[in-house]
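Q: I'm writing up a methods section and want to include an example of the input and output format. Could you take the sequence below and give the corresponding predicted structure tokens, formatted cleanly so I can copy it straight into the document?
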Amino acid sequence: MTTEAVVKSPVEHQETSTRLQFLDLGLQFEQIRNEVMQAVTNVLETQHFVLGLEVEQLEAEISDYLGCRFAVSCASGTDALMLALMATGSGEYAREMLRKPFVIGRHMYSNGMRVNSVAAANASGYLQHTLWLNQATSEHWARGEAMYRGQCGSCHTLNGYRSLDKLLAGRDRQSIGNLLDRLHEYKPDMAYRRFMPPLTGTPEEINALILRMLDKDFWNRPDASEQWSPA
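A: Here is the clean output for your methods example:
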């Protein structure tokens, strides 16, 4: 017995679809075409491709809208986020070294000292391998100067930005010694630990730094041979 099957072709349905544009910049541009073209023409005519009057006007409009005194325009949203992180100190692991304990989080302090090198520098000397001792001055003065340049100079100047002359004004030898003692010990509850690196070196090197901070002619005085040793 033979059975024949009749196979019918499926009916083809022709479907139509409507595409919805998620973001129609062309339509938006048509609404502000004249304003945009005039602004572009002004930039081309004035040749102010960086900053200029248009940027000033934009920042003024933004500050008025937000009700604040100032506004800063950025090249991108990423730049704006980075500025906010830098201003608030939130970018601990991706920010400049200025006045913070680390330049690389938990690895390198802002004075260039590596965290795992602190103990060795305290034992054998911070200046043991330095090439920057000034041979034109006395050895003690040169060591104090090298200590200052290596451990203080990245954040401080003597009489300019964050002047040590102002920060240490009125402090005598003992007072400066006590301050450096705390930085040298670098205890977990020390207030300066939040924004200053530890002071490393031998007692002789730290003593040279104290005298450098006091007076460059200190070594000519009768008591210059006295040593201060951190606790």
